[in-house]
Design brief:
This protein is of the alpha/beta class. It is built from 17 helices and 17 strands. It binds adenosine monophosphate.
């Protein structure tokens, strides 16, 4: 399929062409015509599927077609969970609307409120905002929301994970009743369902069967290791495989700092992002990482949720996330836009139960590799090694076409909305607790211990 069949204006088509987008992703080919026709959308999709363009392009098209942009109050509102996503989504929207009279602003906490208020006064068309800052600015009279025609909730599950339930309700109450709504979420939690029932008008459900867990040019491996030796193994894997770019996930802010200190002590330069870091520091860290000045980024789940980092080769789960579906969010940072990726999980014996829940959620086993010299004691090991290494043939097995037209590994059976979890109301990412309720499953296949192998595609 080509973008030209979707009904977008010639100017937008030129922009996409210049960006090198040769064809729409599945979510784009489904969502764009529906939004152009005025329908409400419930989208089951993560970032990495091209969903920002899926909602941004038709909204820009409609704003331009209706004329009179840069009004005193905005006509499109995109609600996102984190500062980083606000910047990223606003930046993407600006790039899709390049050369058009469309103004987009990102509003998020930690940034100068007076400056944001001044920019709002100058007139904007599209607001991308985190819920808290939007409400603050609204209370001060800087963000009239009475003219909003298009409302998007992006990463709705994360918005609720971060505890923004009250703010979401307040925002909806401020909006005009007549509007077009789009809600995107990787997982359909109870809170997301309630929100969709409340705000969406006869929505069309768009499910992308290439959710990150299922469809990937992504290789997943797990290394069983004693908890006390994780930091050592982490440095060893990064150092010995010389990965160009690695994103390391930890559950807690304290752990992120510890891991970072340890990597630095091992001579591995890195940057950290988590909720306790000031906005400027988070921004600088991300820029350094994105521009390739630092090859290791250590991050907590929420700080890194939804980030689009071009060409990211490797994600390492230093530990198992609190909530099973966060595993999908983590590994979804790599293997994006059809590129290859490697997701490595360091697994201690205390994490077996959480890991088995993830395996159940994935609907397939993850390749288990004992790294020579780091094997846990026999009774803690998750697998018996059989001395058989992963062959290239085995790796090639089951390839199929992926979302971006590239060859991808065959998707396993995947729940429509992968996994369920209860609402996680802590805004403090360290105290966030999940309550996944999936059953346990047996552990995975046996592979030969080999540190080189464990590095996978050591690019
Ligand atoms: P998103 O899911 O919106 O975060 O997009 C993930 C990445 O895919 C971003 O880097 C986009 O620039 C890129 N992208 C979006 N749509 C396309 C497309 N049709 N072709 C190629 N890349 C795309």
């Amino acid at each position: 399929m080509s973008f030209t069949t979707l009904g977008l204006s010639p100017h937008l088509l030129d922009t996409l062409n210049e960006k090198g987008y040769s064809e729409p992703t599945p979510i784009q080919s489904q969502v764009i015509p529906l939004v152009l026709r005025g329908r409400d959308i419930l989208g089951a999709a993560q970032t990495g599927t091209g969903k920002t363009a899926a909602f941004a392009l038709p909204i820009i098209h409609k704003l331009i077609s209706a004329g009179g942009t840069k009004q005193s109050s905005a006509r499109a509102l995109v609600i996102v969970p984190t500062r980083e996503l606000a910047s990223q989504v606003a930046e993407a929207i600006r790039s899709y609307g390049a050369g058009l009279e469309i103004t987009t602003i990102a509003l998020y906490g930690g940034a100068n409120m007076a400056r944001q208020a001044k920019e709002l006064e100058e007139g904007v068309d599209i607001i991308v905002a985190t819920p808290g800052r939007l409400i603050e600015l609204n209370k001060q009279g800087h963000v009239p929301l009475s003219r909003i025609e298009y409302l998007v909730f992006d990463e709705a599950d994360t918005i609720f994970d971060m505890g923004f339930i009250r703010e979401v309700g307040q925002i909806i109450d401020l909006l005009p009743l007549k509007r077009q709504n789009m809600l995107f979420s990787a997982t359909m939690t109870g809170a997301v369902k309630q929100l969709s029932e409340k705000i969406l008008n006869k929505p069309l459900l768009v499910e992308i069967d290439n959710l990150k867990a299922a469809d990937m040019t992504l290789r997943q491996v797990v290394h069983p290791v004693e908890k006390e030796r994780k930091k050592e193994l982490l440095s060893y894997l990064i150092g010995s495989n010389n990965y160009p770019q690695v994103l390391v996930f930890t559950r807690t802010k304290a752990e992120a700092d510890e891991v970072s200190t340890d990597l630095t002590a091992s001579g591995l330069k890195n940057v950290v992002i988590h909720g306790d870091k000031k906005h400027g520091a988070r921004d600088r860290a991300l820029t350094e990482f994105r521009e390739g000045n630092t090859r290791i980024l250590v991050a907590t789940d929420i700080a890194a949720r939804g980030l689009d980092i071009e060409g990211l080769d490797v994600v390492i789960n230093y530990d198992i996330p609190h909530v099973s579906t966060d595993y999908l969010h983590r590994i979804g940072r790599t293997g994006r836009a059809g590129n290859d990726g490697l997701a490595i999980t360091l697994l201690s014996s205390a994490e077996h139960i959480s890991w088995s829940k993830i395996i159940t959620m994935l609907g397939k086993n993850v390749e288990t590799i004992l790294v020579a010299g780091f094997e846990p004691p026999a009774d803690n090991a998750l697998v018996k090694t059989r001395g058989k290494s992963l062959s290239k043939e085995a790796e090639k097995k089951g390839k199929t076409a992926g979302a971006f037209g590239n060859k991808r590994k065959k998707a396993p059976v995947q729940p429509k909305f992968a996994g369920k979890r209860g609402p996680r109301l802590a805004r403090d990412e360290d105290s966030a607790q999940g309550n996944s309720s999936t059953r346990n499953s047996a552990f995975g296949n046996s592979k030969k211990p080999s540190p080189k192998k464990s590095g996978g595609r050591g690019r």
